[in-house]
Amino acid sequence: MKSLTFFDRVAVVLVSTRNPLNIGAAARAMSNFGFSRLRLVNPYSPAFREAKSAVGASDLLADARECSSVAEAVADCALVIGTTAGRNRQIKHEVVSLPNAVPRVRSEIASGVALLFGSEKRGLSNDDLSHCHWVIQIPTAAKNPSMNLGQAVALCLYELARVAKPGGKIASRARARSSDLDRLTATLLEALEMSEYLTTVNTRSEERVRLFVRGLGLSSKDSQTLTGMVRHMLWKMRQNR
Length: 241
Known about the structure:
Layout: E1 10-15, H1 20-33, E2 37-41, H2 58-62, E3 65-67, H3 70-73, E4 79-83, E5 95-97, H4 98-108, E6 113-117, H5 126-129, E7 134-137, H6 149-163, H7 178-194, H8 203-215, H9 220-239
Parallel strand pairs: 1-2, 1-6, 2-3, 4-6, 4-7, 5-7
Helix pairs in contact: 1-6, 4-6, 7-8, 7-9
């Protein structure tokens, strides 16, 4: 089995991208710096795989994985990081500037990392961000803070590539994957609804619980243990109804 390297551990996730040329530019930037795992959540145009802007990265674009949700796209990653200009919106996450984010990503790389980039028009929604552990902000001038999508991807990957060790093996780590945390979130929501702590399970409640669970920093084992505990409580509540 092929040993995973630093570059194999990073997935670039483009959410609701509108312009195929921007997808192609992002793929080209990935190829420039040695990354290959591209995932797209509900891309606006089905013609993105033929984007002429993907110079030298046509194979990478052809292999890009389409996903129906952010949860699906990040399921195998333990660290999920959003990106935002963040100037005119309230962000509930810790916001880390790109230069300060790189050492943190490197220290967590063994767990599998997903970098999320939102649509050109609106960026990442609050629901998208609820899947993230924290958020990267690229330092830009206040007069024009928003960057082109392809440029933002290129800048983030360049900074990551600078600290990578080509060919170096990455030791595995037991941090909980996003899919583990989603199972815990769903189980906890069910228990909160059954206990009438939540009168209704709506999108906003799901976002809050998802953010809370990710903020716990659970290991894979602890996530599975806590899910089992909550499931047992659910079973007990059903027995007493």
